[in-house]
Amino acid sequence: VRACVRACVRVCVHACVCVVCTCVQVCARVCVCVCVCVCVRVCCVCVHVRVLCVCVCVCVSSIFTPIAVQLMKPLNTWQFDIFEVEKVTFGRPFVPVVLALLKERDLLSALRIEEPDMANYLGEIEMKYNKNPYHNSWHGADVAQTADVLIRQAGLERYLTPSETFGVILSAAVHDVGHPGVNNDFLIKTRDELALLYNDESVLENMHASTAIRLAEDSNKECQIFKNLTSGEYDDVRSRIIKMILATDPKKHMTMLGMFTSFIEGIKVKCVHTDGSFEDDFAACAPVNMKPADKSLMLESLLHSADISNPCKPHHITMAWTERIVTEFHNQGDREKEEDLVPLAVFDRASKQQLHDTQIGFIKGIVQPQWEAWDLFTKSVGQEFEDPLDCLNITFAHWEKLKSEHEAAKKAESSV
To answer: What is the largest CA-CA distance in the chain?
Structure first.
């Protein structure tokens, strides 16, 4: 009981739920994915009953409302919508989503991680995520879910150890913890303490990894998730978290993409038969004991793909994330002007650069090459997963249409 209470209290939120009762029908919304201190007002036709401060302590992992269960059903699909889960969790989807991913794979049991410790840890991580428009805990949960889907769709779970799979999902969840809402260049130019600490090298990424690992080692908090791991498991998980988070540095994109492409070519040589068919058994192409560097590159590319996957999601989700990143970029531009720095056009809200041009450039230069490489990888190991590129084509067509309309309007205006 004490363990459950400790897990719940760490993620406790205060909410007020209005319950409108008639003689026939009761409508209630209760978030049981976190420990909720609920103030319930019951308004009946004849009698008014006010019940204040009803403490509902529910262990995150054990009970879900029908609403939450319904929302969790597409957890393993590309159509998963973090914004829908956000609604039912009162703006706190991080803990229930990440915990569900870990529990569904039975990774906590496999690594002897106590569930209350894991819940406490995730709750602390969520608290350390700043409430930025884009780089927030919702993004962390979304990237973790995306990474989980990519593991499934490429059939990689059969060839990863529990500690490796755990390392991937946890790295994805914590990869932006503590993000200040500005990029590395801003921190370097303003001589921020973080830039001085990490010598201008992958400043944010080093901070994210350090924050996540330090928290797990903090003996003053009941979230020591590594305490029961063997030394070998601990070394693997810690090393994987560091490497994978550092690989999310945008400046490493081109180098890593080139290495990943070469890696895929090597797989294709092993996996394609003389008649052009693929080898069904990935182990025959890339054995479980593949070189550690190759496995690391594969998983780092997986996380990087998940991190920049927003344009590859269903269109309404893509547009929601786009609005958020634009807001965060403009906020950085405002801060740069306050520091007497000249922001790039993409960060300058006063710039005449059109959003469609920015998005087209981002897709063609970064997202499309990365996701075409990942698509080639999944096909090289005998798997098919067309949803991301199908969604990306829809998004790209949307921005191209807006660009054409904008150019047509400008042409018509100039001809008047």
So the answer is: 80
For residue 348, what are the CA distances in angstroms to 133, 305, 336, 339, 360?
A: 16, 27, 9, 14, 18
Length of the chain measured in residues: 416
Per-residue pLDDT, 73: 61
Question: Can you tell me the distance from the alpha carbon of 325 to that of 309, in angstroms, rounded to the nearest whole number?
Answer: 13
Residues of the chain falling short of pLDDT 70 = 1-73, 268-290, 416
Phi, psi of 25 (to 5 degrees): -135, 140
End-to-end CA distance of the chain, in Å?
76
- At 201, which amino acid appears? E
DSSP designation for 201: S
The catalytic residues are 135
Q: Can you state the percent helix, strand and coil of the chain, rounding each to 5?
A: 60, 5, 30
Q: How far is CA 304 from CA 93, 205, 251, in A?
A: 22, 12, 12
With beta carbons less than 8 A apart as the criterion, state whether 308 and 362 touch. Answer: no
Residue entry with tokens 């819940």: 119
Q: Using alpha carbons only, what angle is made at residue 207 by residues 205 and 209, rounded to the nearest 5 degrees?
A: 70
Single out the residue of 314, 313, 309, 321 nearest to residue 367, CA to CA.
Answer: 309
Contact between residue 156 and residue 131 where contact means Cβ atoms under 8 Å apart: no
pLDDT of residue 25: 34
